Amino acid sequence: MKVFDTIEDWRSFRAAAVGGIGFVPTLGGLHTGHAALVRRARVENEVAVVSIFLNPTQFNDAADLTRYPATLDADLTLLERLGVDAVLQPPPEAVYADGFRFKVEETAFSRELCGTHRPGHFTGVLTVVMKLLNLVRPQRTYFGEKDHQQLTLIRDMVETFFMDVTIVPCPTVRAADGLALSSRNALLDATGRRLAPKLHELLCSPGSDAEVAEALTEIGFAVDYVTTRQGRRLAAAALRCGDKAVRLIDNVHMDERG
Ligand code: PAF
């Protein structure tokens, strides 16, 4: 497995690469959910590439960025074990050599749901994904369905800008108790970890969105939203763990509702 710390070295590798590339972009802090995306990229493509880039522009809250779990050594060990060919791990100053002067901004759906609570978040996501796709030029790119709003916006961006890549949505990977796997789960304390699966459990319940929001609030979640869109019930809610709020998102298809 080759690890690239500079964009120049990556570009030389990319210029010589033979065969279709399957790409998994990540922020690091890898878990079993990422492993599922990587396994699929490995099986479906000649070359499997992963980026580890803790993208500063998608964190509207500086404290959120600082406490994002950084597990680089473990991440690289996992990726090597999964048979990844190349890891792109560029420094922020190389990715944002323009000082974030150029941005990809979506002006409708990105401002709803998570966008209401995290202003600028999706502009950071879309901009970095556009940059990474231009650098990697993959045939297929893999995203988890847990981040439904992100997946929808990236799909729309790829279509809008006539980008030559297939976006492959992958099912949410869950713990045995239903909690959607997320790097943020590492920030939950024991009480938070015990309550967290309730988010998925209630999303699957037959009640209305308002009833689910009320039930989550009663348990101790600070609810950003529970809503049904595009055939899915989507939610974001935070649990207070000590001095920090750990924000969780999840969604279920209508068929999964009781
Ligand atoms: O979902 C993520 O991990 C990030 O938002 C992504 C797509 C890697 C962009 O930084």
Describe the structure in your own words:
The chain has 258 residues and is of the alpha/beta class. The protein folds into two domains: 2-170, Rossmann fold (3-Layer(aba) Sandwich); 183-253, Pantoate--beta-alanine Ligase, Chain: A,domain 2, CATH 3.30.1300. 38% of the residues lie in helices and 22% in strands. It has helices at residues 7-16, 32-44, 62-66, 72-81, 92-95, 114-117, 121-136, 148-160, 190-195, 197-203, 209-219, and strands spanning 2-4, 21-26, 47-52, 86-88, 140-144, 166-170, 222-229, 232-241, 244-253. The strands form two sheets. A six-stranded parallel beta sheet has the order 1-4-3-2-5-6, with helices on both faces. Strands 7-8-9 form a three-stranded antiparallel beta sheet. α7 packs across α8 (148-160) and α10 (197-203) packs antiparallel against α11 (209-219). It is globular and about 55 Å long. The mean pLDDT is 97. Bound molecules: pantoate.
Question: Mind sketching the topology for me?
Answer:
Blueprint: E1 2-4, H1 7-16, E2 21-26, H2 32-44, E3 47-52, H3 62-66, H4 72-81, E4 86-88, H5 92-95, H6 114-117, H7 121-136, E5 140-144, H8 148-160, E6 166-170, H9 190-195, H10 197-203, H11 209-219, E7 222-229, E8 232-241, E9 244-253
Parallel strand pairs: 1-4, 2-3, 2-5, 3-4, 5-6
Antiparallel strand pairs: 7-8, 8-9
Helix pairs in contact: 7-8, 10-11
The protein binds pantoate.
The site of pantoate has 10 residues, from strand 2 and helix 7.
